[in-house]
Amino acid sequence: MAAGLGVTCCSVYLTAGKVCVTYLTVLLCYVCAKEEKKAVKARERTNITLQPVESPHNAWVVWTFGVESPNIRIASVKLNKEVKCDYEEKFRDRLLLDSNTGALTISQLEMSDSGVYQFQSISSKILSRDFHLTVYSFLPMPSITVTSSVINTSSASVTVDCSVQNSRELKLSWYRGTERLKQTSSPSLPSELSLSLEVDAADGDNYSCMAENPVERQTTKLLTKDIQLGNGENSSWCQNEATVRLIVSAGIALVLILLLVDHIRF
Predict the structure, then answer these.
(1) Start and end of every Ig-like domain (predicted)?
(2) Which class is 143-230 in CATH?
(3) Within 10 A of 120 (CB to CB), how many other CB atoms are there?
(4) Is the pLDDT of residue 74 over 70?
(5) Comparing 34-136 with 143-230, is the CATH topology the same?
(6) Where are the domains of the chain?
């Protein structure tokens, strides 16, 4: 909004650690500019830098934060370039504010850092920009277990289960090569997310399970050796059946021999 007669413009003042905005009708006023909110995504335990619009020299820079509304002051640069970043205990020793550009770096991100961050540069004009930061949890590798196996004369199949700890916007998928076979997700947090799949035991190396969110993905590949448990159980059952048959046959043979000997004696 350009300066002029009888126009409305915004002015900013600080009180009780918060930034307040009022709208006044004046004869001459500052130029006010605000950009659209920018969405930013990052993984916990990493660092991120919020880069604002170009900040004029000799400007007073203020950063505020809030889960929904940015009403808590967290960092500022005064006109004498003095930087202050210790307003909030939750951000202590984790904020770095560039006194020249106004860029704010947050280190060792936590899930609770998700929210709206607002940059304001106050001089002959007021520049403002909002950042909506979403922090995603660290993704562990999904685990694969064999739950059952079926083997017959023509084929062998194994049911495998892939599971991972559920988290924000997590999707769990089974792939055969690059083809996605199944996918699941759940808004229930925290919980374990799992997905089962029946696979061809002879084709085990072609399957993989992927856990992913907007900033990270982890993949566990199903190996042929992973499904030997199913084959081993069935082989053990077959060996036991063969042993039983052998014992029964030997018993029948022994009975026949005893009957034959008894017949010869009499």
Answers:
(1) 142-220
(2) mainly beta
(3) 24
(4) yes
(5) yes
(6) 34-136, 143-230
Neighbouring residues of 83: CB distance < 8 A, sequence distance ≥ 6: 75, 76, 77, 97, 99
What's the pLDDT score for residue 63?
96
For residue 204, what pLDDT band results from cuts at 50, 70 and 90? low
The single-letter code of the amino acid at 199 is V
Which of left, alpha, beta for 240 (phi over 0: left; psi -120 to 50: alpha)? alpha
Rounded distance between C-alpha atoms, residue 226 and residue 204, angstroms: 8
CA 204, CA 90: separation in Å to the nearest integer?
48
Domain 34-136 sits in which CATH superfamily? Immunoglobulins (2.60.40.10)
* Cα within 13 Å of Cα(131), Cβ side: 25
Task: Quote the tokens at residue 21.
Answer: 């905005």
What torsion, rounded to 10 degrees, do the Cα atoms 6, 11, 15, 18 define? 130
pTM over 0.85: no
User: How far, in Å, CA of 102 to CA of 96, rounded?
Assistant: 10
